[in-house]
Amino acid sequence: MVTRDEVAREAGTSSAVVSYVINNGPRNVSEATRARVLAAIDKLGYRPNAVARSLRSSSSSIIGVIATDVSNAYCGELALQLENSALAHGHTLLLGNSVHDDDRQAKHVETFLAQQARGIVFIGSTFGDEQFRAATSRILRSARVPLVFLDRTRTEFGGVTILVDNRGGAREATEHLLNHGHRLVANFSGVPGHSAIQERSAGWSDALSAAGIEVTAQRQVETPLDRYEAFKAARTLLSGHDRPRAIFSHSDEQSIGIVHAATDLGLRIPQDLALVSFDGIKESEILPPGLTTARQPVAQMAELAVKMILGEGQEGLDEQHQEVLPVDLVVRHSCGDH
Amino acid sequence: MVTRDEVAREAGTSSAVVSYVINNGPRNVSEATRARVLAAIDKLGYRPNAVARSLRSSSSSIIGVIATDVSNAYCGELALQLENSALAHGHTLLLGNSVHDDDRQAKHVETFLAQQARGIVFIGSTFGDEQFRAATSRILRSARVPLVFLDRTRTEFGGVTILVDNRGGAREATEHLLNHGHRLVANFSGVPGHSAIQERSAGWSDALSAAGIEVTAQRQVETPLDRYEAFKAARTLLSGHDRPRAIFSHSDEQSIGIVHAATDLGLRIPQDLALVSFDGIKESEILPPGLTTARQPVAQMAELAVKMILGEGQEGLDEQHQEVLPVDLVVRHSCGDH
DNA sequence: TTGAAAGCGCTAACAA
DNA sequence: TTGTTAGCGCTTTCAA
């Protein structure tokens, strides 16, 4: 392994100068010297050791990301966008999946902190607050790194929360269904305890109330935010004779399960079942007949998260900053043709 | 930030002893001293700095993973299994998506090497060999870290290749279709240039030839291994009057696109279109009517990959070792009910 | 513009 | 069983 000293020797200079060249500072280097250093680097195939740099400068170019499960399409898209943003800012991702395991999540946090991660981004989670608190809280509290929570309310560690307008988006989506003449709109929800879920249910309820419809008369289903559980629940729900004709689904992941179940049962969308959803993941586009869904600005959320971690534009912020981004309803064909 | 020296002071011992306690060696520590050290660690909330350890011991607990795109379900499952295995062996993943961008892939490789990654795992890629070679080859050749290529042939860097029996699996899958009486089986393939794709096409061809069926008469479609491109191609393919009644699809990702397109066009599976596929991702289970598919042993592949990176059981291996794992056909309902 | 040198937090050889 | 200490490769202050 080639070190900086060897480059310096090859270039006939000191290792400090090699540093100045590589880092473009903090001292100037004459053109002639710079050329010799560059040549030496090239000749020896030198690559800086990021670990040594990190130790010396006590700052790394690593951002930790903890996702519930990247095989969840929403998480996966967010993770990819985070990588895009991190890359654009010269950083790299350590990625961990918590897969609903609190100990595993805590372990990831410890590892990331040990690796001197610049900060940690949590991608929406199905954890209830209690569980999250248990194993992770103690660790995070002692850490002095920026924390960003995407799509979940979580401010007790002083981190930044990036949310979308869950309530407004859910309301708009539900109203879209009501505009198609439905008076019965099932609430196909995630498991409660998660703030985004509560807000989306509130938005659904808002829409019904505003239309003068009895909320308590509506069907309610609660499943984890994944397509497999949603599939099972939807099979049961849609098999009954009193099956709903319209569903507000809390996530596109769940909608995928619902659509699979409907197809399996020979139900057509939107004729036999109207469906409106939340998230706007890429697959919503091709999920037949084209999912009408409240789209989250995923790329923007990711960029904001990375900026927050890197401390850009975080100056005037209070400890428990919360950022709420808008959602836009993408009308396709799952509720009808408009 | 609490350091080892501070712990030592608190415990009234030397920092070496603290090391011995933390690392369980290489020297013994008396029970009494150990207890004091542990108490000090606890009291001060000390956490070892992995960066310093890595620099000193010139070995890290990081494994680099480069996926084509984790939002591809097959890649995502492999990535998750890699994490499981890495965790079980006390390691962590640096993850990068190449998203079909050779420069980005090369950048990831450089970063991972700079971070002193223990090794790099490449998850199947749609790169042709030429493109892969271009930017990445030079870097890898100079690196002295173990390389593992999952689901792609790539031995010129001396890495280990972990493959499945693509040809045998494809043949078996196609034969399954032939057993249902189909004489025309379209080959819905990935873009050529990728070894797995070539092998799967060969297996498809094997099955037809063995049944005395003209291979050249068959329909051929080539799309990237993703659901979106497959959806578009399948829409076109299935819209025609001479649409195929049976398809061998090279990946479940593509099958998802095909099924979406079929549903969109009102085609029923398997009545109007029989489909057999490859990979066995989790979604194949709920994709209506249940996808018959040649399943890859993903967890086993991941475990093997991590072991290879960590050098376990790699002793007697030659430089260009290749590991071929079996595939098993999971019969569900997309070709009929058996 | 360049060089010498201290030291980031840790490991482990060596000495006691 | 415990302590002392030399460095891992790098950054940056300070002096030249």
3D architecture notes:
The structure is a homodimer of 338-residue chains. By secondary structure, chain A is an alpha/beta fold. Chain A is built from twelve helices and twelve strands. Chain A has a six-stranded parallel sheet with strand order 2-1-3-4-5-11, with helices on both faces. A six-stranded mixed sheet of chain A has the order 7-6-8-9-10-12. In chain A, β6, α9 and β7 form a beta-alpha-beta unit. Chain A is elongated, with a radius of gyration of 25 Å. At the A-B interface, α4, α5, β2, α6 and α10 of A face α4, α5, β2, α6 and α10 of B.
Q: Whole-Å distance between the termini of chain A?
A: 63 Å
Q: Give the mean pLDDT of chain A.
A: 92
Q: The biggest beta sheet of chain A, please?
A: 6 strands, parallel
Number of strands of chain A: 12
Oligomer designation:
homodimer
Compute the CA-based radius of gyration of chain A.
25 Å
**Counting H and I runs of at least 4 residues, what is the number of helices of chain A?**
12
- Uncertain residue ranges of chain A: none
The helix-strand sequence of chain A is: HHHHEHEHEHEEHEHEHEHEEHEE
Strand order of the largest sheet of chain A: 2-1-3-4-5-11
Q: Which class of secondary structure composition applies to the elements of chain A?
A: alpha/beta
| General shape of chain A | elongated
Beta-sheet strand percentage of chain A?
Answer: 15-25%
Name the largest protein-protein interface in this structure. Answer: A-B, 56 and 56 residues
Helix content of chain A: 40-55%
